[in-house]
Amino acid sequence: MSDISYIRQQDNEARFGDYIALLKPRVMSLVVFTAFVGLVVAPNPVHPFVGFVAILFIALGGGASGALNMWYDADIDRIMRRTRNRPIPAGRISEREALGFGLALSGISCVMLALATNIFSGLFLAFTIFFYVVVYTMWLKRATPQNIVIGGAAGAFPPMIGWAVSTGGISIESVAMFLLVFLWTPPHFWSLALFMKADYDEAKVPMLTSTHGRVVTRKNILFYAFILAPIAVGTGFTSIGGPVYFATALIMNALFIKGAIEIHARTEAQAEADKYAVEKRFFYFSLIYLFAHFAALLAEAGLSYIGLGVW
Questions:
Q1: Please, how many CA atoms are within 13 Å of residue 267, restricted to the half-sphere of its CB?
Q2: CA separation (Å) from 122 to 7, 58, 141, 278?
Q3: pLDDT tens-digit series, residues 184-224
Q4: Same domain for 188 and 79
């Protein structure tokens, strides 16, 4: 074997980091954080070790969803510029290996979560994985421009699972956290689609920007921003809210709506002239937006724990 061939073979060999990449760690971090907040703000205290184990298996379940998503989407990942260097399209991990890896993690995470906490949370995690992989990835993503709207539910379930770990069920508070993530998801991803439209066009993924154009997408971002705001602010009046959360929600939603209005007012000529700077800024701000809301819920739980909650 020549030195060049050996180097190429080495470059295509799977490394530990490739298996981590299969888990979509950035998405997993959102799953872990929102699930953790859902667990902490729930009314029934959970032993720290049980809580740690629960979050670990919820994280593995989220990672399993990511691996199965990459397995099924390998064909379009090879086309899209932002995904073509993922482990499968880059040839470092085979589709069969990714499928086996994802299925194994799915089974382990759901069974162990059920055994460590309660059956309902284990079944809820299993349903979440099924929803993300089958309903969103295999069906909605390539079938309808509403893919991210309906499919966004999968990313909104983790705080409900965290809540279920503590309570064994669902309540208005867990539904409020679900709606916060669920209604945030479309404007978040559509702002990404505005400046990544070419990728979705080339891969023939029916994102709203590809099927209805950027003008309609801008209108929908504004529409969802106005729907999201009362849900986000209203959560402050539930048992998990309080003055810290309420103030955070007012400020963040005012800024979120302001950003959506700016995007709505943009023409394509303006967007192309500054390389979609406003759209990119809104996309990154939306990440801060969601983190701030859940961090504020966490702060309220901390204040209540030390007896300073006043809501």
A1: 3
A2: 44, 9, 26, 41
A3: 999 999 999 999 998 888 888 899 999 999 999 999 999 99
A4: no
Q: Does 279 have pLDDT greater than 50?
A: yes
**What integer pLDDT is reported at residue 6 of this predicted model?**
37
pLDDT tens, residue by residue, 290-308: 999 999 999 999 987 776 6
Each residue's pLDDT tens digit, 160-192: 999 999 999 999 999 999 999 999 999 999 999
* Encoded amino acid at 125, one letter: L
Residue 26 lies in domain: 13-170
> In the chain, how many domains are there?
2
Helix (H), strand (E), coil (C) string for 152-185: CHHHHCHHHHHHHHHHCCCCHHHHHHHHHHHHHH
State whether 150 and 236 are in the same domain. Answer: no
Q: How far is CA 39 from CA 2, 214, 220, 278, 309, in A?
A: 55, 38, 32, 35, 18
Q: Is 262 a residue whose pLDDT tops 70? A: yes
Q: Domain check: are 126 and 208 in the same one?
A: no
